[in-house]
Amino acid sequence: MIKCHLSRIMGERKLKIVDVARETGINRGTVTRLYHETASRIELEAVEALCRYFDCQVGDLFEYQVDNGTDSN
């Protein structure tokens, strides 16, 4: 599974969802889904905007974790 660290990054910088949406141009719903880790897909343009805004790499925002609890096959 893919873990999104947006909520942690935003918390460290004391940012609100509306702030990130306004500053990046990303739809507020998209930022909300990433923040709550309920997003099932994301446009690369949104990833790029987040990386630019937070001055970070993709790996700082997203992390692959082995999900031992389910079988996807």
From TrEMBL:
It comes from the Bacteria. This is XRE family transcriptional regulator. It holds the Pfam family HTH_26. GO terms for molecular function: DNA binding. SMART domains: HTH_XRE. InterPro entries: Cro/C1-type_HTH, Lambda_DNA-bd_dom_sf. Residues 6-61 form the HTH cro/C1-type domain. PANTHER family: DNA-BINDING PROTEIN (PTHR37301:SF1), DNA-BINDING PROTEIN-RELATED (PTHR37301).
